[in-house]
Amino acid sequence: MSENLHCWAHNPKQNNAIILFVHGGPGSHSHYFKEWLQRYPIYSEHFGWISYDQRGCGLSAQTPALSHQDNVDDLIAVIHRLSIRHPGFCAVVGHSYGARLLYDALKQDDAIETKAVFLGRSLRPDIPAKRNFLIDQILMKVFQRDDYATLMQEVEYDIQNPASLWSAKQAFREKLKHRDLRTLFYWSNFQAMDEYAAIKAQTELQESDEVFKQITGSIHS
Fold first, then answer.
1. Could you give the C-alpha distances from 138 to 37, 74, 149, 181, 206, in angstroms and in order?
2. Whole-angstrom Cα distance, residue 76 to residue 104?
3. Which is nearest to 196 in space by CA: 10, 57, 24?
4. Burial tier of 57 (Cβ tally within 10 Å: 0-12, 13-18, 19+)
5. DSSP state, residue 45
6. Torsions phi, psi of 31, nearest 5?
7. Contact criterion met (CB below 8 Å) for 2 and 63
8. Could you say which of 51, 179, 195, 216 has the lowest number of CB atoms within 10 Å?
9. Is 102 in contact with 76 (CB distance < 8 Å)?
10. Among 72, 60, 73, 82, which Cα is nearest to 6's?
11. How many angstroms from the chain centroid is the CA of residue 32?
12. Nearest CA to 102 among 116, 122, 88?
C-alpha cells in the first residue's frame, strides 16, 4: 500500500466491529461519506468505520502512478493491513467505482476473507460508460443544440468498441456545460440527493477530472 494514502476512522461508540468504506469516482474522495456519518449517527451505532482517499484524490498525495490496477493493489494492501491490526474488521463496502475496485480486488487475491457489499455499480465498465454517454448526449441536445449538431458531425465512434467510445465520451465531456444535472438521472430519493448536494457544496476538497481521465482511461484500455 502506498504510504501516501490519507486514511481516517470514525468510531464514536468504540465498537469492535469495523467496516472499510471504499469511495467512488474515479477522482472523488471519502470525505462526503465522513460528513454523512457525522450527520447521521445511526450508521455508527453498531459499527466503526475506516476509509481512505485513493491515489491522487482528496487529501492523499499526488502521484504520477495512476491506474486502476494501482488502486486495486492499494485496496488489497489496505484490507490485509486491517485484517492484521483490527480483529473486529468484518466487511468492506464499495460504492460506485469503489465497488468495481472491491470486485477486482477479490478476484485478484483469493486470500481475502471478508464480507463484501457492492453499492451502485455495474461490474462491466462498458455499461456505465454507455449510460453516461447517453445522458451527456441528452443534456447536450436539450441545452446545447449547436454543439450537439457539430459534435455529431465531427465525432465518429463504434459504441461496441471501448477505445472508440472512450474517445467520443471525452469529446462530449469537454463541451458539456450542465454536468451537474446528471444527478437527476441517478437519484430516486430526492431528499437524499439534496442532502448529498449540500454536503458537496460545503466540502472544500475538489473532485479531480484529471484523475478520472487517467483511471477510466486505464480501464478502457
1. 34, 36, 12, 11, 26
2. 10
3. 24
4. buried
5. S
6. -80, -15
7. yes
8. 179
9. no
10. 60
11. 11
12. 116
C-alpha cell at 121: 455499480
Q: How far is residue 179 from each of residues 26, 52, 164, 171, 183, measured CA to CA in Å?
A: 16, 26, 22, 14, 8
Judge whether residue 1 has pLDDT over 70.
Answer: no
Q: Report which DSSP code applies to 99.
A: H
Question: Cα–Cα distances in Å, from 122 out to 97, 130, 140?
Answer: 9, 11, 24
Return the ∠ at Cα 47 (arms to 41 and 51), rounded to 5°: 90
**Hey, what amino acid is at 25?**
G
pTM of the model: 0.87
- Tell whether omega for the bond before 87 is within 30 degrees of 0, i.e. cis: no
Between CA 97 and CA 121 the distance in angstroms is 7
Residue the block writes with cell 487475491: 109
Return d(Cα 53, Cα 197) in angstroms, integer: 20
pLDDT digits (tens, 9 = 90+) for 11-56: 999 999 999 999 998 999 999 999 999 999 999 999 999 999 999 9
Give, as one character, the DSSP assignment of residue 57.
Answer: S
The type of residue at 150 is T
Residue 40 in contact with residue 195, Cβ under 8 Å? no
Instruction: Look at residue 4 and give its three-state secondary structure.
Output: coil
46-89 confidence digits (pLDDT tens) = 999 999 999 999 999 988 879 999 999 999 999 999 999 999 99
